[in-house]
Design brief:
Elements lengths: L1 H32 L9 H29 L10 H4 L5 H10 L15 H22 L6 H28 L1 H7 L12 H11 L12 H9 L4 H4 L16 H13 L8 H24 L7 H34 L14 H9 L5 H8 L11 H16 L27 H7 L1 H9 L2 H19 L5 H19 L1 H4 L6 H13 L8 H10 L19 H15 L4 H22 L2 H9 L4 H11 L5 H6 L14 H4 L4 H4 L3
Helix pairs in contact: 1-2, 1-13, 2-4, 2-5, 4-6, 4-13, 5-6, 6-12, 7-9, 9-11, 11-27, 12-13, 14-22, 16-20, 16-27, 19-20, 19-23, 19-24, 20-25, 23-24, 25-27
Pfam families: DUF4220, DUF594
Protein name: DUF4220 domain-containing protein
InterPro entries: DUF4220, DUF594
Length: 653
């Protein structure tokens, strides 16, 4: 019992010190790791950053509550003397600085920006608690230099804490819409201050043609699901041309910073004055005043703790920006891939084959539960980065992209099928399965069928040889990954259960086969899965089950393999997958792309950014802009197709 009593007494004495030091440690952890979110890092490490982000506020608030409880009654004596514990009051404003957080991680998820009102309430309540505890506990006869040191720290803490809800509010989607001068319907002349810091941050310079949208305007608009074509209509403004070798990583990082850091407020006059002039001066003055004050009679432990907290918190506030820059330099020097520059893969047949021989054990299950990926890719990280660079290079090549409808890749009647090009005539006359699945199937089914067929082609004809074939396989696996992990980004309404059902059907086919006969067995068995199923009426289509998708994939693979010209086959596959990738990117909402940036990013967002900036039609453009009128001489619509919906309301009951 004596040991327990001693432990309780020790905890009562050291509890606040441990909490405050823990809060300081979390702030330094976030300072060093938050910049890494702009790069491709592991899911486990990203979860550690999230845990630190959530815990930092909770720990600082709990430390403030503990401080309030210990000093709520100024007349009550502490276990180790009233005067010895009065230095703890100086820790209250330091905890307010910690509650302000780091500039590089204002928000972890996009939903955090919408909670700025909650952070404002927290600001008022925690500042009130800190000031009340300070007022009730500060001894009347204490050194006035300590009092002024505490006041300066309170000013620093309140400034830092106020910046967080301000930045969250400015980064919310509605505010991003309002911030764009194009949305306001005017192109006002920026002030000299804005020109100076916009030039530094966004590499924007005033040009002769003031109608050119700045980078910040364009990024804000596409993140806010605004139509770029509507904004540039009538010649009021137009998009700057992207060079073939343009550094699109910079654009993507700007989008990330707008949503998840304090970039929206970091270059305002108030922020500059506070963070680069006022706050550093106050920190230095507070440390000097504390150093020259009378500290006789205070516990040496409390004096040392106060020095540590004041000095290291000053480093956080004053040198935090420079430390973050060093982290960026280190990540770039070690060639860590930037955000959204890798393509995660999911191969359906490999997943089925592994599920038939599952790995067991508690360690495997624990690792899988925290997000470890055991879907081993067939391509190295380096090759996938090269694939990403190759795709972006192709998209940035000069060409007529403005106002391009990317959905035309599915139309064989269109004269401007941008994806198939000269292969359109071949598909119309020689590939009925390609034509039907490309033009008639729902997009999610089409992705799944083409993924299985592409994989079967590579298994039968041999692995990818040329760089274009590698791109085809990687994009195919990546689109399957989107259907499996982010179906809402692949296309609104995408059905993930199609993938799950297809895996179960394939597992039945492969129950007793060997790996070397895998592809041929799938094709032969799959083609005979639903004999006569193609004649089933549309109203009974749902009763066929998803086994028909396996049959369609096998028929498609058989048709592709039968193409004697290898160059034409792989060219067709490559163009179809490029069409699907770009179409999916254009049809995904900007909000979902912005949300994905905070969760690790997707290569689809990179593609979406490029095609948006080049002027291709996105979802917002298709919803806002009127459809193009058909030219005269086109086939007339049938009476059933041309019925006016107003006729429904003109009939009498």
């Amino acid at each position: 019992m004596g040991d327990i009593s001693q432990a309780i007494l020790w905890w009562d004495e050291w509890q606040l010190r441990i909490l405050v030091l823990g809060s300081l440690g979390l702030q330094f952890f976030l300072l060093l790791t938050a910049p890494m979110r702009k790069y491709t890092i592991g899911g486990f490490f990203r979860r550690c950053i999230w845990l630190a982000y959530v815990s930092s506020d909770a720990l600082a608030i709990y430390a403030l509550a503990t401080l309030f409880n210990r000093h709520a009654k100024a007349s009550s004596a502490c276990a180790y003397g009233d005067k010895a514990s009065s230095l703890e009051i100086l820790w209250a404003p330091i905890l307010l600085v910690h509650l302000g957080g780091r500039e590089e991680i204002t928000a972890f998820n996009i939903e955090d920006n919408e909670l700025w009102t909650r952070h404002t309430v927290s600001l008022v309540s925690q500042v009130t608690v800190a000031i009340y505890a300070f007022y009730k506990s500060w001894p009347d006869g204490n050194d006035r230099r300590l009092l002024w040191s505490a006041i300066m720290l309170f000013i620093c803490g309140i400034i830092n804490f106020c910046e967080k809800p301000w930045a969250l509010r400015s980064a919310s989607i509605n505010r991003l819409v309002a911030m764009s001068s194009i949305i306001k319907g005017e192109r006002r002349e920026p002030t000299r201050w804005e020109q100076c810091f916009t030039e530094v941050k966004w590499n924007w310079r005033k040009k002769e043609d003031d109608a050119v949208l700045s980078e910040m305007d364009q990024v804000q608009m596409i993140l806010s699901d605004m139509s770029m074509l509507a904004a540039t209509r009538g010649g009021k403004a137009h998009l700057a041309k992207l060079a073939p070798g343009a550094d699109m990583t910079r654009w993507l990082l700007q989008a990330f910073e707008l949503i998840y850091t304090r970039a929206t407020v970091a270059y305002s006059p108030v922020f500059i004055a506070c963070n680069f002039v006022l706050v550093p001066s106050l920190h230095v003055a507070a440390i000097i005043l504390f150093a020259v004050s009378r500290k006789k009679g205070y516990a040496d432990t409390d004096v040392m703790m106060t020095y540590i907290l004041m000095c290291f918190t000053a480093v956080l506030d004053v040198l935090g920006v420079f430390i973050s820059k060093l982290v960026y330099k280190l990540m770039s020097f070690t060639k860590v891939p930037a955000l959204c520059l890798t393509l995660p893969e999911h191969n359906l047949i490999n997943s089925v084959y592994r599920r038939m021989k599952p790995s067991t054990g508690w360690l495997y299950k624990c690792a899988a539960s925290i997000g470890c990926n055991f879907n081993h890719d067939a391509h190295s990280a380096g090759s996938k980065i090269r694939v990403a660079d190759f795709v972006l290079y192709k998209l940035l090549k000069p060409g007529k992209v403005k106002n391009l409808d990317l959905a035309s890749y599915r139309s064989l009647t269109a004269t401007n099928n941008w994806a198939l090009g000269d292969l359109g005539d071949f598909v119309r006359g020689n590939a009925p399965n390609v034509r039907r699945i490309l033009c008639e199937s729902p997009f999610d089914e089409s992705v799944l069928v083409w993924h299985i067929a592409t994989d079967l082609c590579f298994r039968v004809m041999g692995g990818p040889q040329s760089h274009r074939e590698v791109c085809t396989k990687v994009i195919s696996n990546y689109m399957a990954h989107l259907l499996n992990s982010r179906p809402e980004m692949l296309m609104t309404g995408s059905r993930k259960h199609l993938l799950t059902q297809a895996m179960e059907d394939l597992e039945k086919l492969l129950k007793n086969c060997r790996d070397k006969r895998l592809a041929k067995i799938i094709i032969e068995e799959g083609k005979s899965l639903g004999s006569g199923a193609t004649d089933i009426p549309i109203e009974q289509e749902d009763e066929r089950g998803d086994a028909s998708l396996i049959q369609e994939a096998c028929n498609l693979a058989d048709e592709l393999i039968s193409i004697r010209d290898d160059e034409k086959r792989w060219k067709l596959l490559y163009r179809v997958w490029m069409g699907m990738l770009c179409y999916s990117a254009s049809m995904c909402r900007g909000y979902l792309h912005a949300k994905a940036l905070g969760e690790g990013g997707e290569f689809l967002s990179f593609v979406w950014l490029v095609i948006s900036l080049k002027g291709a039609k996105t979802l917002a453009d298709k919803l806002q802009m009127p459809q193009e009128q058909h030219k005269e001489g086109n086939a007339q619509e049938s009476p059933e197709e041309s019925d006016d919906i107003t006729a429904m309301f003109s009939r009498r009951p």
